Amino acid sequence: MNKQTLEHMKQLRLYGMYRAFDSSLSPQSINYTNDELIAYLLQSEWDDRQNRKIERLTKAARFRYSAVMEAIDFDASRHLDKNQIQRFASCEFIKQKQNILITGSTGAGKSYMASAIGHQACSLGYKVMYYNTNKLFTMLKTSKADGSYLKQINKLEKQDLLIIDDFGLKALDAINRHSFMEIIEDRHGEHSIIIASQLPVEAWHEIIGEQTIADAILDRLVHNAHRIDIKGESMRKKMKNKD
């Protein structure tokens, strides 16, 4: 009877429940009441599905770093508002359709922080996509050539959180400027975006180019954005000195 029940669970893809019920048959297992066993099986299936969902979301996001909020360095030299950053763990900013703009010098930990917030969003069930700026625009240019541009833009638009890293390493050309405007326009008031850059936000206008478009993009990005400016020495240099 138990073997048949286990087989049915497997066929129904109730993998969490299958493992829990299988372990409950062990002589060393807890002696559950009927109600406790049902609750245990349901909780195990729930947990298993949630974990698999988080794994799928995290894999789909393609993060640069495997980062966690708990590992962010709040050393005084970095001038970070710990309360502000820890509040991001709730991902309320995503519910509110707000943006986060992270700036700081090379190696300051911008990418790690953006990735940590992204990982946290995945753990709460949000769809996230991480892109290096150059790779994002290269992908979009290629998609224009092969006819998949609208498909790619729609995919970006559906993400609850889009992370664009290393923004501003080089000025945008006309094609990339148009694509960037389309991305920001699609997300404005609908979904959140995190942008990490070595350059201060005040310098982005020149990087975007063409005053009218730059004004429109920055107006949509900045007006409801949380801003983080990381100070202090390079984290990579700091870790190297510890070795």
From TrEMBL:
GO terms for molecular function: ATP binding. The keyword Nucleotide-binding applies. SMART domains: AAA (SM00382). It comes from the Bacteria. It comes from Galbibacter orientalis DSM 19592. Signal peptide: none annotated. Keywords: ATP-binding, Nucleotide-binding. Residues 96-229 form the AAA+ ATPase domain. One of its GO terms (biological process) is DNA replication. The keyword S-adenosyl-L-methionine does not apply. NCBIfam families: IS21_help_AAA (NF038214). This is DNA replication protein. Belongs to the IS21/IS1162 putative ATP-binding protein family. Gene3D superfamilies: P-loop containing nucleotide triphosphate hydrolases.
